[in-house]
């Protein structure tokens, strides 16, 4: 494995001018395993969404930018991102001080040896067109810059729509051998983002089927705002010393905010339509890490000592909502209601300050194994000031640690085991709770896992693991409607990945997770809460294949098979969402328009137009994506 920040990585990117090009981007061909990989606008893997082993990697503090700690408040716009990779188990051994679940690492775009202007025009989902331009400009042998722009007219399965304008830049400078400095800025502005309703039934049944692509929300209930990220990275390898440092700012602002839901829906689809709206909702975080390591050899072994300082300062302003009960309404039936006079109250001020000091040790013994140790002292402080109330302050100063051991009995086989302790942000209460949008306390989390990796002859790789993750469990309390800790959620499971090229021209990436999620505690014992948490599935299989057609240079076809087991849909476990399987098919044709490299891409997603429901925390429903056709043309000038 190449460790982030090493001179080997710099040599790799300098030797590969295709890094700057978009026409060759292909998530299936670039994925190392079936756990999660995104490249450009496409992704593969069971954890590609950022939900790893059933939990959010970002909430766990496991987001990284090129290997460095990052606290994300707003999504980084795709125009400056080359791709993301999910690291867990053995693939996370090169990442110091992980928390439970897995790491999601973001790679920024990079200029290659030659200047390239990449343009992509896409039909988008449901014919919501988008246009992306990326200029990768090597100013000199040691300095390069990417300038990026994206224009999006998004269409959603609910019939809602929105516009997005994305722009940003990545600059990299290598002032000396083994030293690289990176700066980036990325932002997207959005507006007229109509909000589709979330549906809550009044019993143990799914909502009546609604027509997809028929908007039945309210035109005046929209979002507008922006997401912005910027920062700087410094990496240096000087003799046996390595320095990696990053400082980042992330923000997400909703100047206008609205949330629609139908409450108490009966079997005929009749319920009450409620709109919760607000303004000036904001989350902003400044975060970063400085890490110094020393590498030395002792005989056949390689040792690495690490010292790290991490911190974040997050400010969230939310609340002051206006709640409008618009009366009885039937789901799936457009009935515009007049916009009410909305009066907004004062905002809740939520402030988090967290610092962490850590020391670590890594030992590698080629042909024998690897040992990773980490010890972290973190200081977490949270202050919540709600209007008309005295400020509440919370503080936690836990010791966190991680131990991981890998043993390599043969060149093809590696066994590993790991134990990790973490502290996790828990977000806010859902909109239908009595304490809606209230900030929740940080949680202490635990994870243990064992697994193996085996390389078959011919290049096929198998990775598998057994894991056990434990966290406090939040859900709406049936006694008073408050979203609070009602027990402990335990995720025990087994995950598998199979990847490689089993036949000439055929790239295969397959992942599967068997999950046994359970909730324990007083609420379960009193039968106020079921033993299975909402929204989890016991089985997820994601198989992706890309086949290069013999005799037709540049042409390939691809397939995605996604199976989701049934999901618990009510807190008392009295309702499931049925299992479903969706299939996507596609094709690529890599050619040249004159002297210009180009790729034509066609894809049909959910080809059978399977209908089903997604479920959210609190038991709300929304329809899943239907069949859609996407076509795109990418060219590198």
Structural class: mainly beta
Count of beta strands = 37
End-to-end separation: 33 Å
Uncertain regions: pLDDT < 50 for 5+ in a row? 1-18
Strand content: over 45%
Number of helices: 3
Helix content class: under 10%
Largest sheet: 22 strands, antiparallel, barrel
Q: If you average the pLDDT, what whole number results?
A: 92
- Which word captures the global form? globular
Radius of gyration: 25 Å
Describe it.
With about 625 residues, this protein is mostly beta strands. About 5% of the residues lie in helices and about 60% in strands. The protein has three helices and 37 strands. The strands form five sheets. The chain has a 22-stranded antiparallel beta barrel. Strand 12 and strand 13 (about 180-195) form a beta hairpin.
Name some characteristics of this structure.
single chain, 637 residues, mainly beta, 22-stranded antiparallel beta barrel, six-stranded mixed β-sheet, 3 helices, 3% helix, 60% strand, disordered N terminus
Describe, in short, the structure shown:
Strand 35 and strand 36 (621-623) form a beta hairpin.
């Amino acid at each position: 494995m190449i460790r982030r920040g090493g001179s080997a990585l710099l040599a790799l990117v300098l030797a590969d001018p295709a890094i700057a090009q978009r026409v060759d981007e292909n998530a299936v061909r670039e994925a190392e395993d079936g756990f999660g990989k995104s490249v450009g606008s496409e992704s593969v893997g069971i954890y590609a969404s950022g939900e790893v082993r059933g939990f959010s990697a970002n909430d766990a503090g496991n987001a990284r930018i090129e290997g460095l700690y990052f606290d994300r408040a707003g999504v980084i716009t795709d125009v400056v991102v080359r791709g993301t990779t999910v690291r867990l188990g053995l693939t996370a051994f090169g990442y110091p001080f992980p928390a439970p679940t897995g790491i999601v690492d973001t790679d920024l775009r990079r200029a290659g040896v030659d200047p390239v202007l990449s343009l992509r025009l896409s039909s988008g989902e449901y014919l919501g067109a988008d246009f992306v331009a990326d200029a990768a400009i090597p100013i000199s042998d040691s300095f390069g810059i990417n300038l990026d722009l994206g224009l999006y007219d998004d269409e959603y399965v609910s019939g809602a729509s929105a516009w997005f304008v994305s722009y940003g830049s990545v600059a990299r400078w290598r002032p000396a051998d083994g030293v690289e400095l990176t700066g980036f800025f990325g932002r997207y502005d959005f507006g007229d983002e109509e909000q589709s309703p979330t549906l809550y039934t009044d019993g143990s049944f799914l909502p009546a089927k609604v027509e997809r692509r028929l908007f039945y929300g309210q035109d005046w209930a929209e979002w507008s705002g922006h997401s912005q990220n910027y920062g700087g990275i410094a990496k240096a390898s000087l003799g046996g010393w390595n320095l990696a440092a990053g400082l980042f700012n992330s923000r997400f602002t909703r100047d206008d905010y609205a949330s629609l839901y139908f409450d108490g829906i009966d079997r005929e689809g009749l319920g009450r339509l409620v709109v919760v709206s607000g303004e000036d909702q904001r989350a902003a975080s400044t975060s970063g890490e400085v890490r110094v390591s020393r590498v030395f050899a002792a005989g056949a072994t390689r040792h690495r000592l690490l010292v790290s300082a991490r911190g974040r300062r997050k400010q969230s302003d939310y609340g002051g909502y206006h709640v409008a009960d618009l009366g009885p309404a039937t789901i799936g039936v457009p009935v515009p209601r007049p916009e009410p006079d909305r009066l907004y109250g004062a905002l809740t001020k939520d402030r988090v300050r967290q610092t962490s000091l850590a020391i670590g040790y890594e030992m590698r013994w080629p042909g024998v194994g690897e040992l990773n140790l980490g010890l972290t002292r973190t200081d977490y402080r949270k202050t919540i000031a709600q209007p008309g109330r005295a400020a509440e302050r919370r503080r936690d100063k836990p010791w966190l640690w991680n131990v991981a051991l890998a043993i390599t009995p043969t060149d093809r086989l590696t066994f590993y085991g790991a134990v990790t302790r973490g502290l996790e942000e828990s977000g806010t209460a859902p909109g239908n709770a009595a304490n809606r949008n209230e900030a929740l306390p940080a949680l202490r989390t635990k994870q243990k896992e064992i697994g193996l990796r085996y390389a078959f002859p011919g290049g096929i790789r198998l990775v598998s693991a057994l894991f056990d993750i434990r966290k406090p469990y939040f859900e709406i309390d049936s006694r008073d409607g408050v979203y609070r800790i009602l027990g402990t959620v335990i995720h025990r499971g087994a995950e598998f990945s199979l990847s490689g090229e089993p036949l000439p021209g055929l790239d295969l990436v397959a992942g599967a997770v068997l999950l046994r999620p359970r909730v324990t505690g007083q609420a379960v014992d009193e039968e106020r809460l079921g033993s299975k948490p909402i929204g989890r599935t016991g089985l997820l299989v994601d198989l992706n294949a890309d086949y290069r057609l013999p005799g037709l240079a540049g042409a390939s076809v691809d397939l995605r098979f996604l199976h989701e087991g049934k999901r618990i849909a009510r807190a008392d476990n009295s309702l499931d969402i049925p299992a479903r399987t969706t299939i996507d098919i596609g094709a690529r044709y890599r050619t040249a328009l004159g002297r210009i490299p180009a790729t034509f891409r066609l894809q049909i997603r959910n080809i059978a137009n399977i209908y089903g429901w997604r479920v959210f925390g609190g038991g709300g429903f929304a329809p899943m994506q239907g069949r859609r056709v996407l076509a795109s043309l990418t060219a590198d000038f």
